[in-house]
Amino acid sequence: MMVNDESDYLMLSGIQHFTFCQRQWALIHIEQQWEENVKTIEGQHIHKKADKPFIREKRGNKLIVRGMPIRSHELKTAGICDVVEFVHNNDGIALQGEVGKYIPIPVEYKRGKPKKGQEDVMQLVAQAMCLEEMLVCEVNVAYIYYHEIKHRIEVEITESLREDVKKIFQMMHNYYSKQHTPKVKRGKHCNSCSLQNLCLPELEKTVSVRRYMERYL
């Protein structure tokens, strides 16, 4: 019997960092550097509501699970789903302790509004692929809830998106095995990056964002 060694698995949330900026991902996940800004602090407050491990609740035809641990041996990644909604459907899968069959639908919570890039979508598709592997099922749709617009955005889990996720994780594992931090071109996206003071040391550091935010949140 083959045993999977998960010691070299990457954090699933890292695919969002990598898609946004490969250098940002490497600074966080390879060099273990992190600097918080307003966006990361707000994000943590939003996720506190969603990430309540092992909490299950029934709402009509839905079973809602918060903070669900997930992993994929194919992608060699592990992480946590903010929320997984198991919707009653005769074409779904059986769940231990539950009557009937259900289809799993991951829901990711994000601060702000929908982004121009694909970073949020890639993270959500990776979550769907983990659920497919773990539960031996198909996940064809998922959602991102954006706090600023207080609205869900539906994401279709296509084969094209699945292939994109596979390629990204291959690159991430390649960089991680080589402990390589890539260089990237500076752009507008740098202004909203939580690591700009570490990545671009010529910028002047500001007062601690955490101290500032904790006074108002």
Main pleated-sheet profile: 7 strands, mixed
Q: SSE order, as H and E?
A: EHHHEEEEHEEHHH
Q: How confident overall, as mean pLDDT?
A: 83
Low-confidence stretches: 202-209
**Fraction of residues in H or I helices:** 25-40%
What would the principal axes of the Cα set say about the shape? globular
Proportion of residues in β-strands: 25-35%
Cα-atom radius of gyration: 18 Å
Structural class: alpha/beta
Number of beta strands: 7
Total helical segments? 7
Structure description:
Helix content is 35%, strand content 27%. The protein is α/β, with parallel strands linked by helices and 217 residues long. Strands 1, 2, 3, 4, 5, 6 and 7 form a seven-stranded mixed sheet that branches. A hairpin with a 4-residue loop joins strand 3 and strand 4. The N and C termini lie far apart (50 Å). About 4% of the residues have low confidence.
Quick summary of this structure?
This protein is 35% helix and 27% strand.
List keywords for this structure.
single chain, 217 residues, alpha/beta, seven-stranded mixed beta sheet, 7 helices, 7 strands
Write the layout of secondary structure elements.
Layout lengths: L9 E2 L2 H7 L1 H8 L8 H13 L4 E5 L2 E11 L4 E18 L6 E10 L8 H17 L5 E6 L4 E6 L2 H20 L17 H4 L9 H6 L3
Parallel strand pairs: 1-4, 5-6
Antiparallel strand pairs: 2-3, 3-4, 4-5, 6-7
Helix pairs in contact: 1-2, 1-4, 4-5
